[in-house]
Write a structure and sequence with these properties.
The complex is a heterodimer. Chain A has a domain at 67-140 and 151-191. In chain A, 26% of the residues lie in helices and 50% in strands. By secondary structure, chain A is of the alpha+beta class. Chain A has helices spanning 3-19, 65-75, 165-171, 173-191, 234-246, and strands at residues 24-35, 38-52, 55-63, 79-82, 86-98, 101-117, 123-145, 148-159, 208-217, 221-231. Chain B has helices spanning 11-17, 44-51, 102-112, 194-202, 205-223, 232-235, 266-278, and strands at residues 62-72, 75-89, 92-100, 114-118, 122-134, 137-151, 157-177, 180-192, 240-249, 253-263. The longest helix of chain B has 19 residues, at 205-223. The chains are: A alpha+beta, B alpha+beta. Chains A and B meet through helix 1, strand 1, strand 2 and helix 5 of A and strand 1, strand 2, helix 6 and helix 7 of B.
Chain lengths: 254, 286
């Protein structure tokens, strides 16, 4: 007769599960950002809140702290600008989220070469004319376009050490480097939008984001938030259950 | 004396009251060939033919079949539940479920045979032979052996002044009350055996056995409603069961059908997601 005691226990268990979080639910999702021929890992913190009777508010926080660590390492030996007469390498780069902006600091080696034209279209890099070490500092922000977050550099400041100033002024080297860097970086950033994709189970909750920007996680940690919402109906539940069934996470149909 | 109380339950009573939380696990009963993967009910007629269960009783855009085996009094009992969900309006889901109780029906005689009452003034033992579904009722056939005794001072049964064995047929029915099926006894028919039987009738003892069965059984049933063993995934929807009861799976097989609905708002969906997460089926990070 112990069996009878099982019934209330089971019901209580069901009720317990139900109470979990009446108004909102949170998911941690492993995600990746495709960049050129590689993928960078990040975490998507998804917060769903009942916003209106048929609308769920979606708050997505992209935790990019892992990328923040990886990117400077990968950039170390890559030239951002590399043409016939000019090469710009990032020596050390660090970025920090500061409240609602992202600050980037680093050292840049600018190398200037002789460059001669060999034909209508071809140029030949000649001897190295000089190399300058400059400090770079810039700020980035996040723009929301097509439901994706894009990083965008606001401005770029290059400062060369005192001793090399005069030399630089002569040919406006820093200004042209700056323009080239901005163009090169913008190109890369435009190719790597952050479009958080929800797992198949939650695909029917695909939100429209209305707002987005950088967000500091902890101390200087890089994050991007996206706020939006999704209209829901009873079939949203059926969609979710159907996916769970297809993935054999819950028992199948008759 | 716990064991002498009503727990042994009445005929059906126990039987039916056992289904509930059971949540059950099982293999499919009978010669059911599984028409495994079909969510939209296009093969419905085929599965009807093999399982004897009308797919209309669990129709829905989303369908799920659960088979669970639950030990009742150390006897493994297979349960199969078919459920369907569909959108009934922009803010409501309709839920239908059909429970195949033929496994329980088969094991019922084993499970239920035993004492119904063991007080000092009377002891009633049940022996269940057969459980049959007839339309929307359940017929339980067996016999009741009754002894009437005088109570001793220590409330132990004393001098036995009468004993009789009667054949018993009880009819039970289920109604939907709150969110559960509540069973009640429609009637008990006792058929006293032989000469002693005739005497017991004469002394009105048959009636007393009858009353004892009705009273103890009724108490038991009222206290043990059957809350449908639906998928855990559904419980988070907090459905309201509006109608249902036992149904015959022709011929004579016992089943139960339930129809309900659930209000669905953004809040419900968030709750459901929370519930599914608790159940561990929504995990996206290592």
């Amino acid at each position: 007769m112990r069996l009878w005691f099982l019934i209330p226990a089971l019901m209580a268990a069901a009720l317990g599960a139900r109470d979990a979080n009446a108004q909102q639910v949170h998911f941690d999702i492993d995600a990746t950002l495709p960049v050129r021929d590689t993928e960078l890992p990040y975490t998507l913190d998804l917060n769903l809140t009942a916003a209106a009777p048929t609308r769920i508010g979606v708050g997505a926080l992209l935790d990019l702290r892992e990328i923040q660590k990886i990117v400077p390492e990968r950039m170390a030996d890559n030239a951002i600008v590399d043409n016939c007469g000019l090469q710009v390498r990032l020596d050390d780069l660090s970025f920090q989220a500061q409240d609602e902006a992202i600050g980037l600091d680093g050292g840049v080696t600018i190398t200037i070469f002789e460059c001669s034209r060999t034909s209508e279209r071809d140029f030949q890099r000649g001897e190295q004319k000089r190399a300058i070490l400059a400090n770079m500092s810039t700020q980035a922000t996040v723009e929301l376009r097509n439901n994706c977050a894009y990083f965008k550099l606001i401005d770029l400041t290059l400062t060369a050490p005192e001793a090399q100033r005069e030399q630089l002024l002569e040919d406006d080297t820093l200004d042209s480097v700056k323009e080239l860097m901005l163009a090169a970086v913008d190109l890369v950033l435009n190719e790597t939008p952050l479009c958080p994709e929800l797992p198949a189970e939650l695909a029917s909750l695909d939100p429209v984001y209305e707002n987005g920007g950088p967000m500091e996680i902890g101390d200087g940690g890089l994050g991007v938030f996206l706020d939006g919402s999704v209209d829901v109906s009873p079939s949203t539940i059926l969609d979710i259950l159907t996916v769970l069934q297809q993935r054999k996470l819950i028992p199948g149909p008759p | 004396m716990a064991s002498s109380r009503t727990n042994k339950g009445l005929l059906i009573c126990v039987l039916l009251a056992m289904l509930p939380g059971c949540g059950s696990k099982a293999q499919d009963q009978g010669a059911t060939s599984e028409t495994a993967t079909q969510a939209d009910g296009s093969n419905n007629t085929a599965s009807f033919a093999t399982s004897g269960i009308d797919p209309a009783t669990y129709a829905g855009r989303f369908q799920i079949k659960l088979t669970k085996e639950v030990p009742l009094r150390d006897i493994p009992v297979p349960f199969t539940v078919y459920s369907g969900l569909e959108e009934a309006s922009p803010t409501r889901l309709r839920l239908k479920a059909f429970m195949d109780l033929r496994g329980l029906q088969e094991k019922a005689p084993q499970i239920l045979t035993g004492p119904l009452e063991e007080s000092c003034k009377r002891q009633i033992y049940l022996e269940i032979r057969d459980v049959t579904a007839i339309g929307e009722t359940v017929k339980v056939e067996g016999s009741a052996r009754a002894q009437f005794t005088r109570c001793k001072r220590n409330e132990e049964p004393g001098f036995r002044y009468f004993g009789a064995t009667v054949d018993a047929v009880a009819i039970a029915k289920a109604v939907v009350k709150d969110q559960c099926l509540t069973f009640s006894i429609e009637g008990v028919d006792l058929d006293p055996r032989g000469f002693i039987g005739a005497i017991s009738n004469l002394f009105g003892l048959t009636n007393r056995i009858n009353e004892a069965v009705l009273e103890k059984g009724g108490e038991f049933l009222a206290a043990n409603p059957v809350c449908p063993p639906l998928p855990e995934e559904f419980t988070v929807l907090d459905p309201i069961y509006e109608s249902g009861g036992t149904r015959e799976i022709a011929p004579g097989g016992m089943g139960a059908a339930v129809v309900g609905s659930a209000d669905v708002s953004a809040e419900t969906i968030v709750k459901v997601l929370g519930g599914l997460k608790e159940l561990g089926v929504l995990e996206f990070a290592e």
